[in-house]
Design a protein that fits this description.
2 domains, 2 helices, Ubiquitin-like (UB roll), 38% strand, four-stranded mixed sheet
Length: 156
């Protein structure tokens, strides 16, 4: 029987003539229940699925051209700050802290929309960049193509 989010009850009769029932109540992860999986995958409830390190994958895409500009990770704080300010914030694994893209260069990413994948563990941020997205000065972090065993710079 289902008693709301996270509770499940199982009754097991030990013997037909016995009045003794074995009752087990256990807490379950609401995401793992089939009904809730459908809500997460096809419904309207935003319930981001952070990984074991508390991170989501975030792909940054130019809202006008569709070009992929960068890839980064977001933790809960970065997601909240992004939604609150409209400026892209990320979790820097190397610095171990929150950072706003463009905080030192001024090349901020103005977020127009956030797309969420089916199981809510990855995001696409559609942005209007105020300058190059890559710290190298390239428009996109994806400015080289793999050709054989070497990298070839592609047009900016």
């Amino acid at each position: 029987m289902d008693f709301g989010p996270g509770l499940w009850l199982s009754c097991n009769k030990r013997h037909q003539r016995s009045a003794v029932l074995s009752i087990q109540v256990k807490r379950i992860d609401p995401i793992s229940k089939p009904d809730n999986v459908a809500l997460v995958e096809q419904g309207t409830l935003f319930q981001p699925k952070f990984d074991a390190n508390g991170l989501l994958s975030a792909i940054v895409q130019d809202a006008v051209t569709g070009e992929i500009l960068m890839f980064a990770f977001m933790d809960r704080e970065a997601l909240e700050k992004t939604r609150e300010t409209g400026k892209a914030h990320f979790h820097s694994r190397s610095r171990g802290r929150l950072w706003m893209k463009g905080e030192s260069s001024g090349h901020v990413l103005n977020v127009e929309s956030i797309l969420v994948d089916c199981d809510q563990d990855a995001l696409v941020l559609k942005v209007r960049p105020a300058g190059p997205a890559c710290h190298t000065g390239a428009r996109s972090c994806f400015y080289r193509a793999l050709e054989g065993e070497s990298l070839t710079r592609i047009g900016d």
